[in-house]
Amino acid sequence: FSRTYAPKQSKMALFAVFCMGALSLAAGEVDLPRSFPIQGRLVFPNKLPVPPTPISLNGGEYETISRVDGSFTFHDVRPGIHLLDVLSTVAMFSQVKVNLPSESEGPIRCLEYRHPGAAKQPIAHPLELVANAKLFYFEQRPKVSVMGMIMGNPMLLMMGVMVLMLTVFPKMLGGDAMKEFQEQQEQMQKQMGETNDPMAMFSKLLSGDLGPAEPQGR
After folding, report:
1. Which whole-number Å values give the CA distances from 146 to 132, 154, 159, 198, in the listed order?
2. For residue 63, what are the β-bridge partners?
3. In this predicted model, what pLDDT tens digit does every residue of 67-118 receive, in sequence order?
4. Phi, psi of 154 (to 5 degrees)
5. How far is Cα 199 from Cα 182, in angstroms, rounded to an integer?
6. What is the pTM of this model?
7. Is the peptide bond before 215 cis (omega within 30 degrees of 0)?
8. Residue 30 vs residues 26, 77, 101, 201, 215: alpha-carbon distances, Å
9. Spatial contact of 86 and 55, defined as CB atoms under 8 Å apart
């Protein structure tokens, strides 16, 4: 009796398990793992072409490469908070924190960080990331500037002031003052030729005793 009805009982048991599974799926008791795509586009200033650029989530947990038009997509990303980095070698892009909801119909929230320490700003999804600055790996050679060389060299500045005083100052004195200035220069040269003691000459200059000026020959 048991041998005759044993296959029928096993079939009925399998049918009952199948029905229970179908009912549980219909009632939503079994939650299937959800995933979302993260989409965006890289933009260079002045509409320059975007080279293929690697992009990563969470330091390499998810990786992709931008297309020719700069667009990119991460497929089947689990809900949670993810950190998106653009690994470009020619430009600096913002870092984006993407919050994928646990519900399938929930909104995707994104925050943009332009640079470390900058204030966070909300950004819409799909992402549109514009390059913030161009990267330079070598120091640019400074341009040669004559004015920069003159203004940056104190010795040249002093020489320029002295030349200016020698050329402009005598003209500002006038005729009579210029003659008196020349007479004093000639008298100082004569006295320096007569004495060999520089200290005595210096003391005379301090005391103002330069001797009587010689009359000019007619």
Report:
1. 34, 14, 16, 41
2. 56
3. 999 999 999 999 999 999 999 988 999 999 999 998 877 889 999 998 877 8
4. -65, -30
5. 23
6. 0.52
7. no
8. 9, 20, 18, 112, 124
9. yes
